[in-house]
Design goal:
Blueprint: H1 25-29, H2 50-72, H3 80-89, H4 92-107, H5 111-115, H6 117-132, H7 135-146, H8 155-171, H9 177-207, E1 210-212, H10 223-235, E2 242-244, H11 248-257, H12 261-272, H13 284-300, H14 306-311, H15 319-350, H16 362-374, H17 378-381, H18 387-402, E3 405-408, E4 421-426, E5 432-439, E6 451-456, E7 459-461, E8 464-466, E9 469-473, H19 489-506, H20 526-536, H21 539-545, H22 557-565, H23 571-589, H24 599-609, H25 626-629, H26 640-657, H27 663-674, H28 682-690, H29 697-703
Parallel strand pairs: 5-9
Antiparallel strand pairs: 1-2, 3-4, 4-5, 6-9, 7-8
Helix pairs in contact: 2-3, 2-4, 6-9, 7-8, 9-13, 11-16, 15-16, 15-23, 18-19, 18-21, 19-20, 20-26, 26-29, 27-28
Bound molecules: zinc ion (ZN).
Zinc ion binds next to helix 19 and helix 20.
Length: 706
């Protein structure tokens, strides 16, 4: 379950009534104003200053508007080329500027970048609406769409035509004028609320610290965790103390190993109360307004609720299908989670703990079960998952499957952040495929989670291929003391996951930006990423990349066996906490009326009503559920991970049925899925690869829920 940020600007055809930039000194030197003088045409990151964004955005929007006006005012009859393709090609500068802005806002949101976020959001919303609600432009698009059967278009062109046409309709172009005014207001307000929500989460994450002064309070913690906490304290000017934060690499080891129960409680509460503290960063009223505005928007566009509006374009298509899958899995996961809970309570009782397990105890006792039942200690595993080894392991899989080569660029090269690594990716025959940035560790300016985005999508310009510039951003465990970054197995899987999204961009072989790379339905986009996790966890593959960071010794068979045996460990919990969040998302977005919303009560009543036990907290509580409230990205879409999991488990079995690196299967996966972007319907792509529709059984087996 990894957060994934799509930076595609496919939906942002737009223009605005902004003024052209004034000729100030800043604008003259603005690196966005001239062709990048950089290798592989990557953005000249080091030259871009926060003050360059606003003038560049204004200029790019004006350019985009002029391009759109030229399409509208074209005296020739509307054609696929002069309207649909022209629209896809328009807004090039805006894509360039916004991809840098959005990407850095998430990965390195400095004060200068955050200060203009609200203004940028509003401008982009207005610009998007100016284009997608423009009746004259729509008339031309519609004219082409209506001739679609008479035109001789390729399948890819038919998809672009259909997507463009539907994009306008779904944006509300056919509404009455007063309704359009209303809709624009809603969109603008939503963009503002998303920004506030996300800023609040970042502030609340950075504000909470568990400061430990007494060494005895560190009892149970592994050495790396203690050293890491001392280093964090030093960075914060608290020498001699230990600081734990709600960042996962700091929090999870604490929850898993700290013997002091009251301190685990403090830290976990610090995490799950984010945005719910009744202070200036509280997100409850923001959520209420977002949910109600989405109902209003859906109703305005003729839908019963917001989920219906969203799902129309997804593989799942209807709320019934989504609930069908989530409820089937829920019914299987809850009994497994209850069994896990009972096992842990037994340990507490045996140790004469004298208390009932609470949510902040889950990791601690689960770890005990893992050690007892599977004799597996995570700290025994980490030395074999050194970050660079895992990264090279993911590269090696791509080399074996598709011949791809990865060469690190260690000379001076523009980078989005000094800590990022950069790689040149080529085919086996040396053909350039793209640039890949990888930025690994947490910092105060970075959002939580892990994601993959692009600074440029693959596409063709006048027939010439334009290779993509891809970025992967994570929040993995840092090097501690004299040790390099040693990952947990979960982090290693996440690395393979994000790399899978990266491959989806790097292998894209499409003509049009609007369809390239990860421009696929949200519930299909996790297939290429999640399928890679299967290689990360495969014994054969692990023996190739999991080497001890000091001795180079290959991970012992015994440890691989333990990892394999414990594959079903805690899956009841993992599946339940995920499904709770996915169902909560659906419940918010199947509301059909605007209402007074008490967010805490809404969440508690609903989750208790469907049988979530109090010992498990939803993977995201509402007040920091970034996937659904920090943008429209995964709204009525958090279910996508499990929907895609059905696909990825079933897809990986195609390899297992032959062999892990079977060339015919690999080529078919590449040709039918990774290269195709959104040029073919998702289910068609899947069937072209698998020869049939996906089946759920592989997933159930994988999670021990069968
Ligand atoms: Zn993902």
């Amino acid at each position: 379950m990894r957060q994934f940020l799509l930076l595609s600007l496919a939906m942002v055809f737009a223009f605005s009534a902004c003024q052209s930039p004034q000729k100030t000194e800043t604008s003259v030197e603005n690196p966005f104003f001239s062709k990048y003088d950089t290798p592989f045409n990557v953005p000249p990151f080091e030259q871009i200053k926060p003050e360059h964004y606003m003038p560049a955005i204004d200029k790019a929007m004006a350019e985009h508007k002029a391009e759109v006006d030229a399409i509208i005012n074209n005296t020739e009859a509307p054609s696929f080329e002069n309207t649909i393709v022209a629209l896809d090609e328009a807004g090039k500068m805006l894509s360039e500027v916004m991809s840098v802005y959005y990407s850095l806002k998430s990965a390195h949101g400095t004060e200068g970048i955050m200060a203009i976020a609200s203004e940028v959001g509003k401008k982009m919303s207005a610009h998007g609406d100016d284009i997608s609600l423009n009746p004259a432009l729509f008339e031309r698009v519609k004219a082409v769409y209506e001739q679609k059967d008479a035109l001789t278009l390729t399948g890819e062109q038919q998809m672009l035509l259909k997507d463009t046409y539907k994009g306008f309709v779904r944006s509300g172009v056919s509404l009455e004028e007063d309704e359009k005014v209303e809709l624009r207001k809603i969109n603008s307000r939503l963009s503002e609320l998303y920004n506030s929500f996300s800023t609040n989460v970042l502030k609340e994450t950075n504000n909470f610290k568990l400061v430990i002064e007494n060494k005895a309070d560190l009892a149970g913690l592994p050495e790396s965790s203690v050293i890491g906490a001392a280093e964090t304290a030093n960075e914060m000017g608290m020498e001699g103390k230990w600081v734990f934060t709600t960042q996962k690499p700091s929090m999870l080891p604490f929850l898993s190993y700290a013997d002091k129960r009251d301190l685990r409680e403090q830290l976990y509460k610090g995490y799950f109360m984010r945005g719910n503290n009744g202070n200036e960063f509280d997100n409850k009223l923001i959520i209420e307004e977002i949910v109600n505005l989405r109902v209003k928007k859906a109703n305005l566009l003729g839908y019963n609720n917001y989920a219906d509006y969203v799902l129309e374009e997804r593989m799942a298509n209807t709320t019934d299908k989504v609930y069908g899958l989530l409820e089937e899995l829920w019914a299987r996961a809850i009994p497994v989670a209850k069994k896990e809970l009972a096992d842990m309570q037994k340990i507490i009782d045996r140790e004469k703990g004298g208390f009932e397990l609470a949510s902040w105890d889950w990791w601690y006792y689960a770890e005990k079960v893992r050690q007892e039942k599977y004799n597996l200690d995570e700290n025994e595993v980490r030395p074999y998952f050194e970050l660079n080894n895992v990264r090279d392991g993911s590269f090696a899989v791509a080399t074996k499957l598709w011949g791809l080569q990865f060469e690190e660029i260690t000379t001076e090269f523009p980078k989005p952040h000094a800590d990022a690594q950069v790689f040149k990716v080529t085919e086996a025959d040396g053909t350039h495929k793209g640039i890949l940035y990888m930025d690994w560790h947490p910092r105060a300016t970075k959002k939580q989670g892990a994601w993959c985005g692009v600074f440029r999508k693959q596409h063709r310009e006048n027939g010439d291929n334009v290779p993509p510039v891809v970025t992967i951003v994570c929040n993995f465990s840092k090097p501690v003391g004299d040790k390099p970054a040693l990952l947990s197995f979960d982090e290693a899987s996440t690395l393979f996951h994000e790399f899978g999204h990266g491959l989806h961009q790097l292998l894209s072989d499409c003509n049009y930006k609007g369809l390239a790379g990860t421009s696929v339905p949200r519930d299909f986009v996790e297939l290429p990423s999640q399928v890679m996790e299967n290689w990360a966890g495969d014994a054969e593959v692990m023996k190739e990349y999991a080497r001890h960071y000091k001795t180079g010794e290959v991970i012992p068979d015994e440890l691989v066996e333990k990892l394999k045996n414990s594959a079903h460990f805690n899956q009841g919990f993992a599946t339940t906490e995920y499904l709770a969040a996915a169902l909560l998302d659906m419940n918010y977005h199947t509301q059909t009326k605007e209402q007074k919303l008490d967010v805490n009560k809404f969440e508690e009543d609903y989750l208790a009503g469907i049988g979530l036990m109090p010992e498990i907290i939803s993977r995201y509580k509402s007040t920091y559920f970034m996937h659904i409230f920090a943008s429209s990205g995964y709204t009525a879409g958090y279910y996508s991970y499990i929907w895609s999991a059905v696909l990825d488990a079933d897809a990986f079995e195609a390899f297992k049925e032959t062999s892990l690196y079977d060339q015919a299967t690999a080529t078919s996966f590449r040709k039918n899925i990774l290269e195709r972007g959104g040029t073919v319907e998702a289910m068609e792509m899947y069937k072209n690869f698998r020869g049939r529709e996906p089946k759920i059984e592989a997933l159930l087996r994988q999670r021990g829920l069968d």
